[in-house]
Design a protein that fits this description.
Strand content: 15-25%
Order of helices and strands: EHEEHHEHEEHEHEHEHHEH
Pfam families: Carboxyl_trans
EC number: 2.1.3.15
Radius of gyration: 19 Å
CATH superfamily of the largest domain: 2-enoyl-CoA Hydratase, Chain A, domain 1
GO molecular function: acetyl-CoA carboxylase activity; ATP binding; carboxyl- or carbamoyltransferase activity; zinc ion binding
Family: Belongs to the AccD/PCCB family.
Shape: globular
CATH topology of the largest domain: 2-enoyl-CoA Hydratase, Chain A, domain 1
Protein name: Acetyl-coenzyme A carboxylase carboxyl transferase subunit beta
Helix content: 25-40%
Number of helices: 10
Length: about 280
């Protein structure tokens, strides 16, 4: 049963002090220009010159989205499992938990956006590339079921390399599990906003990421199942420029709207207000 944690706060990795950040610089991977890290941080972790979207932590994305002080993480008990006895898998998970402050590759909770309450799930590519194993599948399903039970809209931010190879077929089973939960939620009239970020690939793309009533995406995000190199090797042809990027997907009807990070809160708030009139 999905449950909301009372007064729970996210455990997050410590951030650099402003003084330290101002002394450091970063080179944009896209335009190759150099900027102070503090300037990028203050600009939604987006390049000031070219608009390149840096990876942002799950906790920061939540802070950029919700009304201050309204977010409460969802309580969902997930136990570590290593069904294939993969060497050092447990140690790797523990290191990532310490580094990111997250329990797993998805962070779930309930918060308000301009006063409109919603269930929010944010995947983190910093945690084993946002791969979906049993714990992620359970946490996503728990969030969907909570939204269904409380008659709240659901917003999921995806960022994933796909199913988690360390858990074999059990990770692939999460595709069916999460998709079934979304289908039930949809049958009950729930609003599901899927927001695709870089990268959204593999089993996550082939399941809950692409089942949204409204599908948004960040600019230039890689969105697809297999990667472009695998496809080129399989078909023996060169793919067109921008293949599988957000703009390409929108042009082919796969995405409804491309939403830069600085417009994320505004656009989602507008959608929630429109659908709130339906009484769900």
């Amino acid at each position: 049963m999905a449950e909301e944690a009372p007064k729970a706060e996210a455990k997050v990795a410590p951030e650099q002090t402003a003084a330290t950040a101002e002394e450091e610089v970063t080179v944009c991977p896209k335009c190759k220009q150099e900027f102070k890290k503090s300037a990028i941080k203050d600009n939604y972790n987006v390049c000031i010159a070219c608009g390149y979207h840096y990876v942002v932590s799950a906790e920061k994305r939540v802070r950029l989205l919700v009304d201050p002080g309204t977010f409460k993480p969802l309580r969902c008990k997930v136990a570590f499992s290593n069904p294939l006895d993969m060497p050092e898998y447990e140690e790797k998970i523990e290191r990532l938990q310490e580094k990111t402050g997250l329990e797993e590759a998805v962070y779930t909770g309930v918060g308000k956006i301009d006063g409109n309450e919603a269930v929010i799930a944010v995947m983190s590519s910093k945690f084993l590339m946002g791969s979906m194993g049993m714990a992620v599948g359970e946490k996503v399903t728990n969030a969907v079921e909570y939204a269904d039970k409380k008659h709240l809209p659901l917003i999921i931010f995806t960022a994933s390399g796909g199913a988690r190879m360390q858990e074999g077929i059990l990770s692939l089973m999460q595709m069916a599990k999460t998709s079934a939960a979304i289908e039930k939620f949809s049958e009950h009239g729930g609003l599901y906003i899927s927001y695709l970020t870089h990268p959204t690939t593999g089993g996550v793309t082939a399941s809950f990421a692409t089942l949204g009533d409204i599908t948004l995406a960040e600019p230039d995000a890689l969105i697809g199942f297999a990667g472009p190199r695998v496809i080129e090797q399989t078909i023996g042809q060169k793919l067109p420029d921008g293949f599988q990027r957000s703009e390409f997907q929108m042009a082919h009807g796969f995405v409804d709207q491309i939403v830069p990070r600085d417009k994320m809160r505004e656009v989602i708030s507008h959608i929630l207000r429109l659908h709130a009139k339906k009484g769900r």
